Amino acid sequence: MPRSSKPSDFEKGIIIGRHKCGRSLRDISSDLKYPKSTVAYVIKKWKVSGDCRNVPRVGRPTKLGDRDRRVLTREIRKNRTPPMALIREEFQQASGSVVSMNTIRKEAHLHGFHGRATAHKPLITKSNRAARLMWCKAHRNWTVDQWKRILWSVQILIGSLYEHSISRYTYIPRASIHMTPM
């Protein structure tokens, strides 16, 4: 049996059974590989209360109920690209519950949604780069008069792959990361 400082209910029953059979604390401790203090505590608790089961721990109840959790997952699945602050606002409008960003983030993580940086679309693809090069080579010998006849209307951003990064995040459930889209 793997040892930890807190035995399970079944292991506590084994300790009580061996104690009833007249085994010493040292024998029970060495057989089950629990410290003598743990074995003594289990036996003492059983003698005093007649019960040695683990009781559920107390603590503050969670802010979100089952319905709120379903509303949150629905809001995240509806649109996975907005930042967590916007998801929080949409959740509060949909459910009426006022919760912190940390609560929203923790619940999203519990349901398998994790913020991931989206893949960047290359600003100039290989085919686009080749087409531009061909156009430049075709117009290499133009005169100034020919260039004056061109109407220049829009300035565009020319860059290569990952030169300008705009951070965008999406919330993806862990199971669907490796799934192919339908």
TrEMBL record:
**Domain Transposase Tc1-like: residue ranges:** 69-141
GO cellular component term, pick one: nucleus
Specify the superkingdom. Eukaryota
Q: Where in the cell is it found?
A: Nucleus
List, alphabetically, the InterPro entries matched.
Homeodomain-like_sf, RNaseH_sf, Transposase_Tc1-like, WH-like_DNA-bd_sf
GO MF annotations for this entry?
Answer: DNA binding
| Annotated GO biological process | DNA integration; DNA transposition
Q: What protein does this entry describe? A: Transposable element Tc1 transposase
Gene source species: Caerostris extrusa (Bark spider)
From the broadest rank down, the organism's phylogenetic lineage runs: Eukaryota, Metazoa, Ecdysozoa, Arthropoda, Chelicerata
